[in-house]
Amino acid sequence: MTGRLLRRLLLGIVTIAGVYTLTFVMVISVPGNPLQQSERNMPPEVEQALKARYRMDNNWIYFGQFLKGAVRLDFGPAFTYADWTCNQILMHSLPVSLVIGLLAILIAVGVGVPAGVLGAVYRNSWLDGAVLGVVLLGISLPTFVTGSVLLTVFAVYLRLLPVGGWGTLAHLPLPCVTLALPYAAYIARLTRMSMLDVLGSDFIRTAVAKGLPRRVVIGRHAMKVAFLPVVSFLGPATAQAMTGSFVVEKVFGVPGLGQHFVNAALNRDAGLILSTVLVFSSLLVVFNLVVDLLYAWLDPRMVDAL
Amino acid sequence: MIHKLVLTCVTLFLVVLFINSMTFQEPRADLTYVNPSDIHTLDPARISWVQDFRVALNIWEGLTTWHPRSTEPIEGAALFPPEISPDARTYRFTLRDDARWSSGEPVTAQDFVRGWRRAMEPGSAGDYAFLFNDHIVGAAEYVRWRHDAIGRLTSLDRGGRPAEAEAFFDEHAVELEARFAQVGARAVNERTLEVTLSGPCPYFLDLVALPVFLPCHPSIELLRERHRGRPLTPAGLVVYDPQWTKPDYRRLGYPGLITNGPYQLRDWKFKRRARLAANPHYRRADTFACRTVEMLVYDNLNAALMAYEAGYVDFLPELSVPYDHELARLSATGLRRDIHQCPVLATYFLNFNCVSETVNGRPNPFVDPRVRRAFSLGLDRETLVKRVRARGDRVARSFVPPETISGYAPPAGLLCDPGEARRLLSEAGFPGGRGLPNIIVLSTQSDERMCQAVARMWENELGVKVELQTKETKTFAEDKARRRFFVARGNWYADYNDPTTFLDCLATGNGNNDSGYSNPEYDDLLRRAEEAADAASRAAVLARAEALIVERDCPILPILHYTEPIAIQPYVTGLSPNARLWFPFRYARIER
Amino acid sequence: MSAHRRAIAGAVFLMSLTGVGMLALPVAMDWHNVQDLESAVRHPPSWTPVMAPGRFLSPRDQSSHKELVWRLAHRPVSWFGHDDLGRSLFYRLVLGFLISLAIGIGSAALAVGIGTSWGAVAAYAGGRTDLILMRIVDVLYGLPYTLVAILLEIALSGPLTVLMGEDSKAAQIVILFLAIGGVSWPTMARVVRGQVLSLRHQPFVEAARALGAGPLHILRRHLLPNLVGTIVVYASLVVPQAILQESFLSFLGIGIQQPLPSLGRLAADGVHAVNTFVSFWWLLVFPCGMLGLTLLALNFIGDGLRDALDPKSSAGLLS
């Protein structure tokens, strides 16, 4: 088991290295000058001096230098925000995104799984239809629409919650719910699908034949197996939710990490792009590992697949 | 059992993260305002955004400052007016006795020289560093000498000759002070600063209020990068630790940011808020009605406006929401007295590509001034500004906004005349628009609506086919710099209160001359204005130069002069709308 | 309503919309950018046309269509109101719907194309090829979707606009579905690989190999028909995802460029239309409604296809 874990970790590191290289190649091939921060044209000597200072005049030197720094967890300066280093930016935005992401996933699982189970058990009844309808609404409207509507209704018209920003408990519900909706919808669908599969299998038939009460059969036996696809979906989904959704942050004014992906890309800020991408892929590797462990624990048959 | 364990762990983790990311609620500041997108930089040598001006000029004070309503230069850290020599080339500023840093020490002339020197140095890469080169005697030569040395050091280093590089480095560092002494900014004594200009500059007192001329506390020297005992980086650049602008930075004994303005920076949380507190050592600080000012960051202006409506925000200096036409209407009809319009010294215009032979393989018709004039005549600016933009901006027929700079009256410009436009086009060889290639119009997202309307108008009136290309900011800047357009949107915000800030843009070879316009007659007129005997004749020459641009050659097509709406809660007094969007917070009073 | 009926309803909805769209396409192409800055700016919906007919078509707009369409073009429609520039929202929605659908289907096609070949080759070849190909997929998974879409879009727009020359309208659609399809194919690759792995050891494949069939032949004649079910199911998931991604890119400002509309762009523009200051509800309701219904229909069709083609889905004992 430990051997397999180590192997996965090693593979993960290789993946992260690959991600770094690929992102680097993309960043240097996209047109645009990261050093010019306003619309005024920068005098060429100044540009030269700055490029020399940040070692950006030679791409491969920059590649190696950034990597060396990244290993020491020092990601260098950010051009998008001149007075802050990438480390400071990450330190300020990552916790916010982590909180929103984790809460959103918890809400999504807490709402989606029961909804899916209900839909599967009472298949084709009105309950199934209602659940499916609401659930499909979650994936049929873009997040900026649902977010803006929720903000307008709850914060502007009803004045129940603050209008965006971050700092108190009251700032949590709206962004987390908005972020959770598409995930909840997908999880509900996934749960329903896999529950339907499981309910038709042999061991369930045996359990029913043995006379076990319905609640136990569904709750304990069926759930364990039906939950597997959800778990494998949750891995990358949690990483994605945690590194923030740009839309939620933009609509609610939350100082999270997602906006930095977009702003850094639009500003061609190599350091910030590379550091955020490294954070994202590390989170992904970690969560995939966690997911595989959970998988193994839930379904012992799967241990070999590790 | 395991579920419970996992659940507890996750909850604990969440709680810890939560506490980490939440802020402790401080009592509400006396004045709360919104700054979308956070401060870009607080380094005075590099500031170029209006939002940063707003914070920097409230926490620092230059030799002069701006009047809260008329934005004319008034007394700042130095006595006003300074001593000016008869040939208007030497200024002697005497600092006030009560000019103090937030740590209590008096502000000295050396502090100003230190700040100016930082801004001049190539390593700072400031947008306004050109002001030193243009006006202060000896500055351009000093900067050129430094550029050459840095270039030489870089090439020696790259060429693998370290011993030579080190030798040159030492030699260069030794010469540094002697060379700088030849620049026309020196501290005669602790309280007197003498500035020598390279030519008469009637707006110099206006200039020194800009952040690039702010003083710098001596403690910043603790954070200077050194190499081999010299105050330079190995590449020869002058670099300070960029964290010096943080109030809580303590590395190497640095006491944190020390400033000399009415307020000091108490706290700055990235992308969330910044808090200013009254500087106890500033003169009459105890008479300030607003002792604390909070700047909130709201990326989404719509949410900011909603927060203002809900009463969380006292003052909104930016209101560019998608429905701002409605706000302008409410303000104009008097239904919302808290929304004010600030007529700003800025112009939005279209650049014509005056210089390229071909663009993307198509021949460029805009090298012919008749074609440019035709396109200018064929645009209905009234409808554009009143209907499409509908924000209360002023229609522009000249480059410099009228009735803004005292003593200067810009020319009348061209009126919309489609018939004349069509006649000119035929005269230039394109009757009915035939023979013209698809006109590429380059725009950014913020004004694509305007550009769509412009494109449509030209298609209807002149019979041309227009291809609108909306690019995001960086790609746009690159395409504009490479002249891959026929027409490109542009705007210009005045740096100082004088027509030359606009007119210099179109001089031959100017870094901001996007159209590539080059006319020796125009350059000559600008030169003559510099040497003019008095203000009246200078204004006349400049008006003639501007008439060349807006009436005859038309390298640019001015469309509107910006009018920015701001919102001030009715219980806030002391902040008035003005042309520079300048809001000194010490005059604000809250009557809740 | 059972899943089957929902799928049929969704399919009918989409077909009819597409049909209406195609019929109205020539007129929509003419009218989607006709601006009436005098009287129609932000005009609420009305039965009678608000724009004065005829005046707004410049000489270049008058295309050579039949008399009926031409007469239709002289009666601009104001049923869905007008937008900021006085353009008829109805025509913009029609064109937007078609463009969004085109982007969705294009991205799905690209994702299917690349993903299927990648996954099938990896699974069939096995060994080191499989390892390398799948590691590449892992690396691509490790990149944030948003970032890659933005960078791809920026990188592609330059060369493609030059390549496709004068008519840059089609270029935009191509760029977008290249960018979106280019980030969606890894999932497809993984799924196909899984399927081919399980099919590889089936007796009929062994038999084919014993008979001397080459790998390409086996892939094409034997494996592909069995993959069709999975491919169709996942493709039907990619289409609504792609349309959502496009709306997200439009919200950022780098999706379909004006004056071309798309459902996502219209929804992003309409989001600020309702608040305490203004209430241009038609700018919000119609685009978002249309977007929502389209995605709903696509999702229903996907569900129906899965129920029909996925052999494992069955009725349970406990339902």
Give a written overview of the molecule.
The complex is a heterotrimer of chains A (about 300), B (about 600) and C (about 325). Chain A has a domain at about 95-255 and about 290-300: MetI-like (MetI-like fold, Orthogonal Bundle), CATH 1.10.3720.10. Chain A has twelve helices and no strands. Chain A has helices spanning about 1-30, 45-55, 60-70, 85-120, 125-140, 145-155, 175-200, 200-210, 215-240, 245-250, 260-265, 270-300. The mean pLDDT of chain B is about 90. In chain B, a hairpin with a 3-residue loop joins β8 (about 265-270) and β9. Chain B has two domains: about 50-255, Dipeptide-binding Protein, Domain 1 (Dipeptide-binding Protein, domain 1, Alpha-Beta Complex), CATH 3.90.76.10; about 340-565, Dipeptide-binding Protein, domain 3 (Roll), CATH 3.10.105.10. Chain B has helices at about 1-20, 50-60, 110-120, 130-135, 140-160, 160-180, 205, 300-310, 325-330, 370-375, 380-390, 420-425, 450-460, 475-480, 500-505, 520-530, 535-555; strands at about 30-35, 65, 75, 85, 90-95, 185-190, 190-195, 265-270, 275-280, 290-295, 315, 340-350, 360, 360-365, 395, 440-445, 465-470, 485-495, 555-570, 570-575, 590. By secondary structure, chain C is mostly helical. Chains in contact: A-B, A-C, B-C.
Number of strands of chain A: 0
Shape of chain A: globular
Helix and strand pattern of chain A: HHHHHHHHHHHH
The CATH topology of the domain at 97-257 and 288-298 in chain A: MetI-like fold
Low-confidence sequence ranges of chain B? none
**What separation lies between the terminal Cα atoms of chain B?**
56 Å
What oligomeric state do these chains adopt? heterotrimer
**Percent of residues of chain A in helical segments?**
over 70%
β-sheet strand percentage of chain B: 15-25%
SS summary, helix count of chain A: 12
| CATH fold descriptor of the largest domain in chain B | Dipeptide-binding Protein, domain 3
Give the C-level CATH assignment of the largest domain in chain B.
Alpha Beta
> Architecture of the largest domain in chain B in CATH?
Roll
Please report the number of helical segments of chain B. 17
Helix proportion range of chain B: 25-40%
Under CATH at level 1, the class of the domain at 97-257 and 288-298 in chain A stands as: Mainly Alpha
Which stretches of chain A are poorly predicted, pLDDT < 50 over at least 5 residues? 302-306
